[in-house]
Design goal:
This protein is mainly beta and about 280 residues long. Helix content is about 5%, strand content about 45%.
């Protein structure tokens, strides 16, 4: 499989280094530092960086059999906080709840089920935990003006310690709408980086943009409004033609590396591109 992926990587596109996003002179900007590839079935839904710098991937093939039997047939973009792995699961279109699974450093998994609120969409596209470990942020599909906030299972003492019900605590209201967010990750206490699959160009000039959400203060259990802006368009390069799909995003606070996934179209979709960036100042 690794040899096949390396061959596909050569076909899917040329390694791109030193590609910078637009910015004013002297302002920090993101510079692309490389592109890697991962098996889409095993890693095409999302990724998260461990403390040692290695990467955890999620895809359809990583869903445990016992969760599939329970109806959790989709896994989203994961996060790792203090050694705990947070996974976002959703069920079929008729589902009335979504689920967040938390795996402890010792390998014990607990399931936290959130019953949908009136008007809430069933999607559970991602999970990201605030740097202080107290709040879990997630989001819905389609056009939205909010992100959902839950007490972080296990890490927040307000949650049951062996799984159970998980109620929404409050929301991050967004100052402008976003569409089809596939993943978000905290870069700082007051900044989220989010990958959007929006290809319409109606909300932001960029197609499938990488978005930045700035908060006026760290999450503290009270409603807050986030300021949204588009940083740059995620790359869409492949020898195959058709529709690309943005997937997960990760920011490694130890290395300062931002990674975002893009699934290419057609038969090329067997390997997901993982684009890497570093923030630099001219």
């Amino acid at each position: 499989m690794k040899r096949q992926l390396l061959t596909l990587a050569a076909l899917l596109g040329t390694l791109t280094l030193g590609v910078s996003t637009a910015s004013a002179a002297g302002d920090p900007h993101w510079e692309q530092t490389g592109t890697a590839y991962t098996d889409t079935l095993g890693g095409g839904q999302g990724l998260a960086s461990r403390a040692d710098g290695s990467l955890l991937y999620r895809g359809p093939a990583t869903i445990p059999l016992d969760l599939r039997i329970k109806g959790w047939n989709h896994v989203g973009d994961p996060d790792i906080a203090r050694g705990y792995v947070f996974d976002a699961y959703q069920g079929p279109d008729t589902a009335t709840s979504k689920m967040f699974a938390v795996t402890t450093p010792s390998g014990k998994r607990y399931e936290y089920v959130h019953r949908l609120n009136p008007g809430e969409k069933l999607n559970s596209s991602f999970a990201t935990v605030s740097p202080d470990g107290q709040w879990l942020v997630s989001g819905e599909w389609g056009e939205q003006t909010r992100l959902q906030v839950f007490p972080a299972p296990l890490l927040n003492p307000a949650t049951p310690q062996t799984g159970g019900d998980l109620k929404e605590a409050w929301q991050i209201t967004l100052d402008k709408p976003v569409r089809d967010i596939q993943g978000c990750d905290f870069a700082t206490d007051t900044r989220l980086l989010c990958a959007s699959n929006d290809a319409t160009g109606t909300l932001f000039p960029e197609i499938r943009p990488l978005l930045q959400v700035d908060l006026p203060r760290k999450l503290d259990g009270q409603p807050v409004t986030g300021s949204v802006k588009s940083l740059f368009a995620l790359p869409q390069r492949s020898v195959c033609t058709g529709t690309f799909e943005t997937e997960g995003v990760d920011y490694d606070v130890n290395s300062g590396t931002l990674r975002a996934e893009m699934i290419p179209p057609g038969v090329c979709a067997v390997a997901t591109a993982v684009h890497s960036y570093r923030q630099v100042t001219d």
